[in-house]
Amino acid sequence: MYRTVKFRSTFPNEWVFDSELNPAAPGARDLAETIVAKLRNRVSVVTQVEQHEFYGWAFETAVGKGAFYNVLNP
User: Fold this and answer.
1) Of 1, 36, 43, 68, which is most buried with the most CB atoms under 10 A?
2) How far is C-alpha 34 from the geometric centre of its chain's CA atoms?
3) Confidence of residue 50 (pLDDT cuts 50, 70, 90)
4) Does residue 2 surpass a pLDDT of 90?
5) Do 44 and 62 meet the contact criterion of CB atoms below 8 Å apart?
6) What string of H, E and C letters represents the secondary structure of the chain?
7) CA distances from 40 to 2, 15, 34, 62 (A)
8) The pLDDT of residue 1
9) Is the per-residue pLDDT at 15 higher than 90?
């Protein structure tokens, strides 16, 4: 099952590109890190933020019997 949530943010969205202008790292990593930091006090498991392919940041969470793979696409 997939769920999508859209929201606006004032965090920077600075992407990193290689020498051929291909995306190397997506923007909004600070936003992903802030979300993870806020979740740490609220859920039983939160992993570190890792790059999800070239277009987003991912982290895993667990609450009760539920496990969630979260991807932030800036």
Assistant:
1) 36
2) 9
3) very high
4) no
5) yes
6) CCCCCCCCCCCCCCCEECCCCCEEECCCHHHHHHHHHHHCCCCCEECCCEEECCCEEEEEEEECCEEEEEEECC
7) 23, 26, 10, 11
8) 79
9) yes
Q: Is the pLDDT of residue 58 over 90?
A: yes
**What is the rounded distance in angstroms from the CA atom of residue 18 to the CA atom of residue 71?**
22
Q: How far is it, in rounded angstroms, from Cα 50 to Cα 36?
A: 11
**pTM for the model:** 0.89
Residues 45-51, mean pLDDT to the nearest whole number: 98
Task: Sketch the domain layout of the chain as residue ranges.
Answer: 22-72
Token pair 């997939």 in the structure block, residue: 2
